[in-house]
Design a protein that fits this description.
With 174 residues, the chain is of the alpha+beta class. A hairpin with an 8-residue loop joins β3 and β4. The radius of gyration is 21 Å and the shape is globular. It starts with a helix and ends in a 17-residue tail after the last strand.
Length: 174
């Protein structure tokens, strides 16, 4: 997500202001003028699945795949690794370091809440795209993020007026 912002600014263009842009300017870091990137959390997303979260030197895997063509399945508990001690991710970290899942979940939540404010544009949407007004959308589907939680991935337009609930018991035939 940082490439978009970085390349726009490197080319002398402006970052669009009509939509929220999650990317950061990484020119100083990439050119060696800054010792740190300024980003402490990286979300590893594959398709519409949050695969893993890296926060500082910690990484949590949420899904497993036994072989290249096998199905991805969520772990019951995220598999946590300290990349500083174990850069090859060969040894899972146990309970004493489980606290790092909380700041990871907070970062994931903050990122995914942006989908409620500005939903992703579906492929095939005609141009020009007109974003929905605030409050015009409601959750329709959810995405499971391992065992952490579920978040909205697709939003649909609200009806002007919601229909009244109907049980079917007031039908004349009984």
């Amino acid at each position: 997500m940082d490439w978009f912002t970085t390349l726009l600014l490197a080319a002398g263009a402006a970052v669009p202001e009509e939509r929220q842009i999650d990317g950061m300017d990484m020119r100083e870091f990439l050119l060696g003028d800054a010792g740190v990137s300024g980003r402490d959390t990286v979300l590893c997303i594959q398709g519409n699945r949050l695969q893993a979260v890296k926060w500082r030197q910690w990484k949590a895997h949420l899904f497993q795949q036994d072989e290249f063509l096998s199905t991805w399945t969520p772990y019951n508990m995220s598999h946590l690794h300290n990349l500083e001690w174990d850069p090859r991710e060969e040894h899972e970290i146990d309970f004493p370091h489980g606290w790092v899942v909380h700041p990871m979940a907070a970062a994931v939540g903050a990122f995914l809440r942006t989908f409620a404010m500005e939903p992703p544009i579906k492929p095939g949407t005609p141009d020009p795209y007109l974003p929905p007004r605030p409050g015009e959308m409601r959750p329709e589907e959810h995405l499971q993020l391992g065992v952490i939680t579920q978040f909205v991935t697709i939003l649909v337009k609200l009806h002007e007026e919601l229909p009244q609930p109907h049980s079917g018991l007031d039908h004349p035939s009984g």
